[in-house]
Amino acid sequence: MKFELEELGRRLADEELLEDMRRCAKANGRDSVTKAEYESTGKAHPSTIERRFGSWVKALEQAGLHPTRVTHGVTRPVKYGVTDQELFENIKSLWITLGRQPRARDLTTPGSEFPAQRYQRRFGSWSGALKEFVAWVNSDSSGEPQQEATETNQGSSGSAVQVGSSKRRSRRDVSDRQRFRVLVRDGFRCRACGASPLTHVGVELHVDHVLPWSKGGETTDDNLLTKCKQCNLGKGNAFHA
To answer: What residue segments make up the domains of the chain, in order of their start?
Structure first.
């Protein structure tokens, strides 16, 4: 009789292996499981699963789980077909959270959806990614679509009567990129009281018009101001000269 070691999990059916992967993922409180995690708690060895399904990623997909990658101790889901905008939105989110320009090492924290390597492969370097990000943020600062603005007065019958119209240079709503520019310009602080979510827990910042839209103000960076929710409440159409 030839003495041999029995490979762990070799006698488990495919669905039993997949179910065991799902069990381990659920125990971790995630929709994925890494090979290292499975090796410590699973019924089989990761190599058994890789041989059975072709790769660990393919096994995760068949189990209805999501691939992950561990970078600098941080486990992140692996995303394919990521667009430049998704990468830029991640930088914007980090910038707002940190209250400053993110550094490459900040991408190793759980607050970053993507690791630095993703930016280096796409843009050549982290500094190259930041340059492209700045261009993207500023790309909606000019050439705003014109909107028709009309003035109305009350007629003798009480109905609104249009008395004139003019072209507006900008849209009424503040875009996400424009809001970000104003927040950075104002140092993520309320220009009225100085409150900041970076130093005061629970502070909510708004970006609003200085000269209100209803009084002819444009949605341009120089007519926008950062205020906390408390300072911005109840101001109505009042504005600072």
So the answer is: 14-76, 79-138, 147-232
